[in-house]
Design a protein that fits this description.
The chain is α/β, with parallel strands linked by helices and 289 residues long. The protein has nine helices and seven strands, in the order H-H-E-H-E-H-E-E-H-E-H-H-E-H-H-E. Helix 4 (121-131) links the parallel strand 2 and strand 3. GO terms for molecular function: methyltransferase activity.
Length: 289
Amino acid sequence: MTSDAPERGPGPGAPGMVVGGSRAAWWAAGLAMGLANAVRHRLRGYRTPRPFTTDEVGRSVDYVLGVVDQWVKDGDLDVGGRRVLELGPGPDLGTGAVLLSRGAASYTAADLFPLATGTNPAFYEELGRRLGEPVDTGRIGYHVTKYPAMPGVEGPFDLVLSNAALEHFDDVPGTFARLAELVAPGGVMCHHIDGMVHMRGIRPRDPLNMLRYPGWLYRLMSFPGIPNRLRAADYLAAAVATGWDARLVPVLVAPPAYVDWARSGLSRPYRDAEDLALLTFTLVATRTA
């Protein structure tokens, strides 16, 4: 989401959340920024999913190494010998290079937008230096495709990964159903999911801000890539319903005082949700059917 997107999806560090402030003021601020974002993104298109580009070479290399480490940690994964599919890799395919260097048998990426076609070559040079071997982009498969059908993407895969991507998908149940077709029996998917508002000025203080608006008003703020507002329980239910044995790994949890303050100002469908405190989390699931 250009400058509105988080630098990472799930990650450590609790933001300084508002408690006892004016809910009306945050409602108005979120609406104003959301409408401005909608106009900007509709005019310019979806270009930069991170608040920095691969021209910031060192920062970008640190980022992809951290993403892979988080997958391995949260999913208790061994990538050795795995045929990997990543959804929504963003502006580079560095995670694929890292996974291949750690023994993955193959790596394929699928994205809705051709964001990784103009990656700064210096990024891959520095990543190769950090990995101790040159990055062979010829081993990396890349598809610009449509979700959930993903035409052109052919399995079977043993491992499906994503980082701060699924919250932008329009049809998560359909995507999980398609992944169940593409993944070999016993295969695993591990998705870092960011359930916080992606507007940087509001995100640290009122992370549930996007849940304050009724559906019709949120649609006025829509653009390709806007967060879908699903909560942790929604992702879990979608995975189970499509043949996955799934669990959630909490990453960033809001303090009870913030959740209690925010709840009464949320749109009615979210007011009684039991998982509001789960701001970022990882869905880990094994294909059972």
